[in-house]
């Protein structure tokens, strides 16, 4: 521990020039902020009471992006980012399964804080080179202006590259030091933090665990135990105590994770298993820190350079996000509420998490296409799609929650989208309601395990049953999304499936199910420049090998909300081979005289359209037999009758 994250991606980083170095924090930063008295491990009781705060470090020189996010010197309250209506949807009938935590409909957000010594934003972004806003040359002006942005960008690129090299050196040095540390730690002289008076480490016995449950665990003890478990699991043969298995250490670590970070045991375990041991801690640590505040330029109303200029003039400190988007801006600091500026009210931008850009980039809608956004409220992605269509074609923005379509409609109007039709059906009713789309986005209702830093209630309110129900709903929705796409589309024929969750049940399992149920679809490249490959194997499950084309995004790796994106191409359905082309299935037939003959099986000939009335009628009969009231007969059944 105490070194940079192993899983850092080389530059260019999407949001953050340097990865989150959580292991340092776990070992040192938290301990440094404490007084000498033992402090209870943190436990989330009420998510609303835990308001993430953002500040900027005074010392910009030592600011590597993550260090700029601290607990003192408040500049904002990110709870305001979360749409209040998200709570409503947990109450309605359809929303029983809807754990959306998309924050695209913000209340006014005010970022306040001390300015960094540099005067400009903390250098924690590699700005885009694709932005035409950086035509003018830089100046020495202290504030970020469009004029000095390009120079700053170049300087930051160089700095990031140099820092990346330093990181590698630091990483190698830390790896070399680790062996020495192991020897020191285990003899009880010094722990991984350099505490000379530490007791030799041992796993608590069953009695000690029981005893600990009755008290509030000391945060130092829990942290140290977590560090030790991670270290021992990393070199198990060499460091494990006799008589203890890997699973003993893992079980203790999961217990400590749930108590330290305030998760229920079920979710702590589920999330833990997504990563190698040390990385899991980085993930849990990253969930304790708010993600950067980002906005998406509405290109129907303005250009990014003009928007940036307007906001800079109002005292907003911002920079382009990464090279992967030419519409995103990261807001570092603002003396005005970002969700209530005249530019916001005039629809020049959407307050939107960077991860929310990804599915729309993957969808890549083309002008004049017919697009369905199947679960669209409050419209962050709908309005992005409308902008990419340049207000041509049509976007059907659907959401099962009628109440949420109000904010969707408001956003559609504010952003000047003229090609959007808002509707409110259960997504599972498509394509019966309408079909033949060139592209469909299914940004599915999900558990929100990717957005825990915004909604900490997820830590305690998700049970095994929730994941089963959600996964079931997602599987139903994805089939309907696929069936709503026209394989004949001249320009498209694509569906994008996304969630703001990181669990395999809601992502790879759903995609794999769709591939099995719909042989006419295949996964294709998302077109996204970064992101980890989806799992093709997970804890004994094997998925289709093409699952490696899907992309996973993580807070501790990409400094954005946890997210998943898969893109499918829908092909024409291949008709089953004609009977005379197929090998006949042979069945034994007993003739009248009692002799047995092998004969080809007669073709059962199933035409789903033709047979639908009969199937429907037999379903009604079955329901009646069970004492249930069947739904009224559909028109086709009546016609057939
Ligand atoms: C992740 S949110 C969508 C966020 C949206 N795409 C955006 O970018 O602003 C999921 C949405 O699914 C909707 N939803 C839940 N169940 C649904 C269903 N069966 N059919 C359609 N929409 C549903 C919820 O009301 C919620 O608004």
From TrEMBL:
Compositional bias of kind Basic and acidic residues: 29-49, 151-162
GO biological process, one term: maturation of LSU-rRNA
SUPFAM superfamilies: S-adenosyl-L-methionine-dependent methyltransferases
Active site: 500
Swiss-Prot/TrEMBL keywords: Methyltransferase, Nucleus, Ribosome biogenesis, RNA-binding, S-adenosyl-L-methionine, Transferase
Ranges of Acidic residues composition bias in the record: 77-88, 97-106, 174-198
GO cellular component, one term: nucleolus
Sequence positions that bind S-adenosyl-L-methionine: 375-381, 399, 426, 443
InterPro entries: MeTrfase_RsmB-F_NOP2_cat, MeTrfase_RsmB-F_NOP2_dom, Nop2p, RCMT, RCMT_NOP2, RsmB-like_ferredoxin, RsmB/NOL1/NOP2-like_CS, SAM-dependent_MTases_sf
Region spans: Disordered: 1-162, 174-213, 587-641
GO-annotated molecular function: RNA binding; rRNA (cytosine-C5-)-methyltransferase activity
Location of the protein in the cell: Nucleus, Nucleolus
All copies of domain SAM-dependent MTase RsmB/NOP-type, residue ranges: 283-571
Family assignment from sequence similarity: Belongs to the class I-like SAM-binding methyltransferase superfamily. RsmB/NOP family.
PANTHER family: 28S RRNA (CYTOSINE(4447)-C(5))-METHYLTRANSFERASE-RELATED, NOP2 YEAST -RELATED NOL1/NOP2/FMU SUN DOMAIN-CONTAINING
Name of this chain's protein: Nucleolar protein 2
Species of provenance: Roridomyces roridus
């Amino acid at each position: 521990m105490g070194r940079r994250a192993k899983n850092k991606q080389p530059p260019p980083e999407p949001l953050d020039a340097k990865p989150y170095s959580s292991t340092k924090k776990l070992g040192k930063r938290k301990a440094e902020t404490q007084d000498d008295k033992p402090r209870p491990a943190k436990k989330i009781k009420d998510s609303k009471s835990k308001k993430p705060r953002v500040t900027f470090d005074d010392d910009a020189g030592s600011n590597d992006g993550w260090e700029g996010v601290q607990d003192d010197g408040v500049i904002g309250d990110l709870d305001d980012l979360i749409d209040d209506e998200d709570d409503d949807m947990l109450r309605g009938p359809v929303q029983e399964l809807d754990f959306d935590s998309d924050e695209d409909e913000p209340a006014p957000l005010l970022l306040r804080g001390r300015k960094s010594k540099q005067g400009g934003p903390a250098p924690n972004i590699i700005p885009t080179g694709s932005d035409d806003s950086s035509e003018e040359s830089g100046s020495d002006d202290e504030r970020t202006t469009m004029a000095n942005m390009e120079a700053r960008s170049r300087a930051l690129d160089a700095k990031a590259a140099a820092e990346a090299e330093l990181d590698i050196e630091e990483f190698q040095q830390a790896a070399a030091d680790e062996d020495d540390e192991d020897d020191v730690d285990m003899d009880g002289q010094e722990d991984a933090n350099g505490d000379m008076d530490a007791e030799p480490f041992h796993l608590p016995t069953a009695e000690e665990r029981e005893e600990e449950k009755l008290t509030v665990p000391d945060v130092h003890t829990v942290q140290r135990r977590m560090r030790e478990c991670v270290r021992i699991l990393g070199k198990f043969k060499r460091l494990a105590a006799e008589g203890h298995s890997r699973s003993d250490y893992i079980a203790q670590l999961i217990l400590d994770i749930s108590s330290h970070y305030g998760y229920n045991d079920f979710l702590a375990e589920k999330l833990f298993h997504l990563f190698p041991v040390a990385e899991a801690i980085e993930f849990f640590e990253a969930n304790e820190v708010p993600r950067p505040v980002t906005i998406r330029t509405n290109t129907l109303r303005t250009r990014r350079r003009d928007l940036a200029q307007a906001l800079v003039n109002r005292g907003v400190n911002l920079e382009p996000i990464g090279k992967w988007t030419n519409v995103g801006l990261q807001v570092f600091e603002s003396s005005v509420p970002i969700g209530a500026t005249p530019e916001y009210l005039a629809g020049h931008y959407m307050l939107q998490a960077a991860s929310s850009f990804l599915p729309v980039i993957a969808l890549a809608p083309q002008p004049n296409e017919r697009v369905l956004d199947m679960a669209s409220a409050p419209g962050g992605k709908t309005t992005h799609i409308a902008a990419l269509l340049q207000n041509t074609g049509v976007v059907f923005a659907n959401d099962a929650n009628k109440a949420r379509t109000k904010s969707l409609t408001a956003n559609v109007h504010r952003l000047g989208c003229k090609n959007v039709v808002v509707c409110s059906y259960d997504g599972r009713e498509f394509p019966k309601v309408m079909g033949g789309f060139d592209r469909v986005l299914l940004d599915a209702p999900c558990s929100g395990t990717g957005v825990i830093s915004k909604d900490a209630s997820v830590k305690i309110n998700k049970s095994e049953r929730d994941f089963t129900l959600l996964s079931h709903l997602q599987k139903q929705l994805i089939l309907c999304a696929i069936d709503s796409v026209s394989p004949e589309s001249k320009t498209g024929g694509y569906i994008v499936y996304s969630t703001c969750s990181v669990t395999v049940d809601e992502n790879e399992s759903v995609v794999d199910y769709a591939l099995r149920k719909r042989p006419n679809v295949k996964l294709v490249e998302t077109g996204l420049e970064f992101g980890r490959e989806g799992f093709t194997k997970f804890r004994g499950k094997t998925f289709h090998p093409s699952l490696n084309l899907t992309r996973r995004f993580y807070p501790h790796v990409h400094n954005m909300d946890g997210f998943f994106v898969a893109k499918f191409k829908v092909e024409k359905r291949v008709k089953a081979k004609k009977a005379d082309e197929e090998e006949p299935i042979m069945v034994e037939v007993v003739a009248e005289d009692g002799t047995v003959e092998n004969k080809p099986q007669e073709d059962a000939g199933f035409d789903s359209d033709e047979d639908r009335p009969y199937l429907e009628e037999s379903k009604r009969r079955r329901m009646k037999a069970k004492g249930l009231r069947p739904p009224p007969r559909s028109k086709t059944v009546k016609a057939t009758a």
